[in-house]
């Protein structure tokens, strides 16, 4: 059984498992299950109130972006990934991932309910702020292609659209743009601020690291099973998507931190974005492009480079996630 397909009566028998990496990631995702209200976010309220306007702006800006985009990821999964995958173990993981995205959305709702943030202003930001709206439109373009046009997954063009959607969401949105925001959110804890908010972000990062692993494994599996996708032209297009995403994120970060806060400014974040982009390029088998050092070495190792495999010679199967060996215990809040 190939991993791509649209047969309703196919993929109804879980065992024997065809793609062990998907099953292992599902098991790890279940082990990581958590709920936002397990964290006493109200304990951070005094920190938030004594922070500078610029610092509160950064937190509000991040929540304004994350909140709708967690739901946008679910649309991409529901309409652009789940219907075109046959393997039941992949369906199990995608179902858990969609629940996690909903849980993340509710986590940011929890932040909006706890901190004195203007909800209407936060909700409108993804439309009113051009750099944020531009990123969202970039993502929506790929959903439209998957939902408003007939996608024939048996054709080279259809399979290319499937991979483009995965790159847009798993690699760019979750693997670069989200991680850039995670770093900013967690930077407050580096200064002993918003510690419980930091714990909430830790749990979200843990989930997103699995989403990233699943997406990369799925892309590489599709490429391995479909040699017609392995062309220099398609490779160049995928790489350019990632480079364009970096430019959009730089513009967004200039709005996120126009004047900088203690220990952090847009230049610092944008260097981290370029570092992330190089890691994602490597994970897809490309060479690095920016060749910058990681300015935020204090960040968790969840974004370390995964096992590499050449994007257009995807014959190595060593990219399977070592999830069983690294299954994380449920984290403690605080």
From TrEMBL:
Transmembrane segments: 166-188
Keyword Transmembrane helix in annotation: yes
Catalytic activity: a 2'-deoxyribonucleoside 5'-diphosphate + [thioredoxin]-disulfide + H2O = a ribonucleoside 5'-diphosphate + [thioredoxin]-dithiol
CDD domains listed in its UniProt record: RNRR2
Manner of cofactor binding, per the entry note: Binds 2 iron ions per subunit.
NCBIfam families hit by this protein: PRK09614.1-5
Protein family membership: Belongs to the ribonucleoside diphosphate reductase small chain family.
Assembly behavior: Tetramer of two alpha and two beta subunits.
Biological function: Provides the precursors necessary for DNA synthesis. Catalyzes the biosynthesis of deoxyribonucleotides from the corresponding ribonucleotides.
Protein known as: Ribonucleoside-diphosphate reductase subunit beta
Annotated source species: Homoserinibacter gongjuensis
Gene behind the chain: nrdB
């Amino acid at each position: 059984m190939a991993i791509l397909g649209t047969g309703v009566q196919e993929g109804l028998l879980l065992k024997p498992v065809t793609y062990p990496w998907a099953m292992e990631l599902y098991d790890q995702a279940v082990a990581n299950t958590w709920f936002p209200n397990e964290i006493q976010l109200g304990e951070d309220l005094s920190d938030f109130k004594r922070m500078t306007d610029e610092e509160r702006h950064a937190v509000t800006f991040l929540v304004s972006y994350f909140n709708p985009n967690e739901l946008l990821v679910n649309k991409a999964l529901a309409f652009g990934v789940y219907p075109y995958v046959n393997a039941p173990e992949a369906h199990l993981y995608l179902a858990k991932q969609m629940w996690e995205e909903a849980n993340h959305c509710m986590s940011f709702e929890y932040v909006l309910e706890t901190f004195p943030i203007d909800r209407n202003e936060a909700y409108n930001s993804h439309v009113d702020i051009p750099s944020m709206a531009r990123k969202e439109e970039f993502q929506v373009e790929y959903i439209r292609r998957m939902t408003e046009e007939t996608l024939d997954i048996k054709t080279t063009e259809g399979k290319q659209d499937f991979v483009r959607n995965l790159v847009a969401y798993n690699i760019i949105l979750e693997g670069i743009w989200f991680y850039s925001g995670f770093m900013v959110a967690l930077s407050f804890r580096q200064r002993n601020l918003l510690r419980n908010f930091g714990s909430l972000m830790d749990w979200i990062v843990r989930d997103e690291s699995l989403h990233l692993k699943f997406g990369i494994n799925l892309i590489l599996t599709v490429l391995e099973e479909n040699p017609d996708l392995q062309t220099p032209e398609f490779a160049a297009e995928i790489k350019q998507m990632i480079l364009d995403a970096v430019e959009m994120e730089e513009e967004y970060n200039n709005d996120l931190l126009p004047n900088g806060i203690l220990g952090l400014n847009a230049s610092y974040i944008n260097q981290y974005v370029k570092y992330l982009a190089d890691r994602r390029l490597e994970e897809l088998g490309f060479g690095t492009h920016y060749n910058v050092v990681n300015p935020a070495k204090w960040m968790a190792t969840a974004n370390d480079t995964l096992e590499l495999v050449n994007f257009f010679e995807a014959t190595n199967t060593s990219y399977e996630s070592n999830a069983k060996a690294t299954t994380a215990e449920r984290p403690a809040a605080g």
